[in-house]
Task: inverse folding
């Protein structure tokens, strides 16, 4: 029987190609769709909004951090896909008594490409997964060349309000910022630190990006921040582009160009 090691170092054994998959991670749900696993995926979270037809028609098993474990048990999956950051460790551990669980841990682009390829191997879609991986490597090589020819803009990327919270230097978001030619002014902080407007000012931010998720920043917040930080450019950012580490990354190059 084939065995696989996930990105946390856990080994799982599968007796056959998975036929009943549950995804607890929105960005990886979209990846499974792009890998052509429509029939195999039987359950997703309420935050798995892409693709829309899955969001409307697939069985929902709760949120990423409040999973309905008994509902998952009734669905009888033969593979559950989770993520270290997005799902709660205790809930993921409980699921291992129901089905093999493959957990990702994504901090950089290479981790994302590795995850895509590994899930392709596990689900029998390795050819498509390799194709996606090669395209991402080509796209980000081009993005890197463009960024190398420009001065890195000192940037604060905000994910929350009341309290203000930013992306720290050990996050996937920070890696995307750096690759796109931005310099994260909170790169010396970890995870998602609480910050203040004064912190942004003192760090010499030239640009503030207000993410569309998890906090839904809108035009009104942009105006508020513009008043609070005169002389600093404020923009709304598509949070999916900077934080979704599945096949959504295929759209990142075009997003930057636009």
Result:
């Amino acid at each position: 029987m084939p065995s696989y090691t996930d990105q946390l170092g856990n080994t799982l054994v599968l007796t056959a190609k998975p036929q009943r998959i549950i995804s607890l991670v929105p960005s990886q749900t979209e990846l499974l769709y792009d890998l052509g696993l429509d029939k195999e995926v039987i359950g997703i979270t309420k935050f798995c909004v892409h693709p829309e037809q899955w969001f409307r028609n697939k069985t929902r098993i709760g949120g990423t951090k409040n999973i309905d474990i008994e509902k998952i048990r009734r669905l009888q999956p033969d593979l559950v896909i989770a993520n270290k950051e997005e799902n709660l460790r205790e809930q993921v551990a409980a699921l291992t008594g129901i089905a093999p669980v493959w957990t990702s841990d994504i901090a950089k682009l290479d981790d994302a490409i590795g995850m895509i390829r590994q899930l392709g191997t596990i689900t029998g879609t390795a050819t498509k997964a390799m194709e996606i991986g090669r395209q991402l490597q080509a796209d980000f090589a081009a993005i890197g060349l463009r960024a190398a020819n420009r001065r890195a803009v000192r940037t604060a990327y905000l994910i929350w309000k009341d309290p203000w919270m930013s992306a720290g230097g050990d996050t996937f978001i920070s890696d995307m910022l750096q690759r796109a030619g931005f310099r994260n002014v909170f790169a010396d902080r970890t995870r998602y630190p609480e910050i203040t407007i004064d912190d942004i000012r003192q760090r010499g931010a030239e640009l503030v990006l207000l993410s569309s998720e998890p906090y839904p920043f809108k035009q009104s917040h942009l105006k508020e921040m513009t008043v609070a930080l005169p002389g600093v450019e404020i923009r709304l950012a598509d949070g999916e582009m900077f934080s979704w580490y599945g096949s959504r990354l295929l759209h990142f190059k075009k997003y930057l160009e636009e």
In short: The CA atoms of residues 128 and 159 lie 32 Å apart. The first helix runs from residue 26 to 34.
